[in-house]
Amino acid sequence: MTVTNPIDTGAFTPLPLAGVVADLLPPIELYLPAVPSQKPVLYRARTAAVNESDLQLLQARGIDELWVSGDEQNTVAEFLANNLATLLANETQPPAARAKLLNQVVSQTLKDSMSCDDPASSVIASQDLAKHLVELGTRSDLTIRDVAKVARHDLCTFTHSANVACYSTMLAKALGVNDEQELQAIATAGMLHDLGKLEIPTAILNKPGRLTNEEFTQIKLHPVRGFQMLRKEFTLPQLMLVYQHHEKMDGSGYPVACTGVEIHWWARICAVADVYEALTGKRPYRRPNTANEALLIMRRGSGTHFDRDIFQCWQSHFQTELAP
């Protein structure tokens, strides 16, 4: 029997179904997802098991995650971190479901590692996760479009960075990069491409209205700050991804208005992934764009904002028709 939970929905965190494995899951309460106007409903008590048939019924209902209350979030985060390799190797779960799980772990790990104000620890954590990201993200049965469907989009810098890292890695693979170490380096840099934003006040990052000139000047400094924070930890190509991911092909970007081939091609890959993620993410001043809307907006910048060939590769992997 289900019971209504009185706790505020903001105190809950999602647990993708790919992480709900009976033999591994710690004793926690699981709730059905709820819209903001509703209270979550208890799905399984702490002592009740969840079997494969339960998960299949949830999937049939279009449910791909359960919720965990705030006081058990640390338990879940530790469980996912300790069992990540096993969960990602579970072939009974589709690759997209495992990508959703990995995305959440990456986001949480970035949040934890970046909070300690030590770039070296953030790099180490990102490098470890990059191996999983490359292994899963380069599978032939997982597409960029699949990942985009299950990615979580919100105002969180860490979630955004997790999405951009995954997109950048898959796009690099689609462009012909097959060397695992190179892909892992791109994935690691993608996770930390916005590290410099940690030095910008949250009130500016999440401001619902138009930024003042002074506020936008601060925003435009984040690639420089990220470069400075990572200069002892990253290779030159990785640093260029961090430093140049807001540069544009026509020279109208920042921080130094590079043009064309002056922009490292890893940064050009990240630029496409970054803008797509930003356009499809939630913002306080607008609704998220659909994939078609985002791609149409981006196509207008092909050759001026984005590298034309890289954007064309990105667009083709969504297999969507756009209006001329």
Could you explain how this protein is built, in words?
The radius of gyration is 20 Å and the shape is globular. The N and C termini lie far apart (53 Å). The protein contains 14 helices and 4 strands. It has helices spanning 52-60, 73-88, 95-114, 119-137, 144-150, 157-174, 180-191, 202-205, 213-219, 222-230, 236-244, 265-280, 291-299, 308-316, and strands at 12-16, 30-32, 41-44, 65-69. With 324 residues, it is mainly alpha-helical. The strands form 2 sheets. Strands 1-4 form a two-stranded antiparallel ribbon. Helices cover 51% and strands 5% of the residues. Mean pLDDT is 90; it is low at 1-7.
Beta-strand percent range: 5-15%
Could you give the count of β-strands? 4
End-to-end CA span:
53 Å
User: Which H/E pattern describes the elements?
Assistant: EEEHEHHHHHHHHHHHHH
Query: What form results from the Cα inertia axes?
Result: globular
Residue share in helices?
A: 40-55%
- Taking all Cα atoms into account, the compactness measure Rg is 20 Å
Structural class by secondary-structure content: mainly alpha
Overall average pLDDT: 90
**Separate helix tally:** 14
Uncertain residue segments: 1-7
Q: Record the strand order, biggest sheet.
A: 1-4
Largest sheet: 2 strands, antiparallel
Write the layout of secondary structure elements.
Layout: E1 12-16, E2 30-32, E3 41-44, H1 52-60, E4 65-69, H2 73-88, H3 95-114, H4 119-137, H5 144-150, H6 157-174, H7 180-191, H8 202-205, H9 213-219, H10 222-230, H11 236-244, H12 265-280, H13 291-299, H14 308-316
Antiparallel strand pairs: 1-4, 2-3
